[in-house]
Amino acid sequence: MAIRTLRTAKVEFAPKLYTWQPHGGTRASSEALGVDEHIVIKTLIFENERGEPLCILMHGDREVSAKQLARVIGTKSVAQCAPDVADRHSGYQVGGTSPFGLRRAMPIYMQTTILDLPRVHINGGARGFLVEIDPREAARVLAPTLVDVAVD
């Protein structure tokens, strides 16, 4: 679904394959592809206190401040979903979650500093598969709400 969404939106992208490692995260993918972990963008599925899902895009070398995210979006609390719950919400396996072509419509949030980068690597919908794209194109397709919720 992710690649279909990108093609339908006429987004130019470069596919990047690597050997996926369980629990390797963005560090493993950045090392395998020889790129800075900062430009590898994580797609994380969170839920608010009512169990409603949301998607947040974050630099690979940063974490999301759940407290700050909840404050910014005006909800009591948010927390990252357990892997099986995230899989059900997104339609993708954790480790292969893409913000493009999500199974369920949900709000998408993007760390604002992602747009400062010339190119990013973001999941293409499968473990071991990223796409290199212009982050402004990702923003055009996803129409995310920009937030500043990164912590080192």
Question: Mind explaining what this structure looks like?
Answer:
This protein has 5 helices and 10 strands. With 152 residues, it is α/β, with parallel strands linked by helices. A hairpin with a 2-residue loop joins β7 (120-126) and β8 (129-133). It is globular. It starts with a helix and ends with a strand. 35% of the residues are buried. The mean pLDDT is 96.
Short description:
The protein has 152 residues and is of the alpha/beta class. 26% of the residues lie in helices and 30% in strands.
Summary tags:
152 residues; alpha/beta; two-stranded antiparallel sheet; 26% helix
Low-confidence stretches: none
Number of DSSP helical runs: 5
Share in helix: 25-40%
Straight-line distance between termini? 32 Å
User: How would you describe the oligomerization state of the chains in this entry?
Assistant: single chain
Describe the sheet with the most strands: 8 strands, mixed
What's the pLDDT, averaged over the residues? 96
* Structure summary, number of beta strands: 10
Shape annotation: globular
Provide the succession of SSEs.
HEHEEEHEHEEEHEE
Q: What percentage of amino acids are in beta strands?
A: 25-35%
Radius of gyration: 14 Å
What structural class is derived from the secondary structure elements? alpha/beta
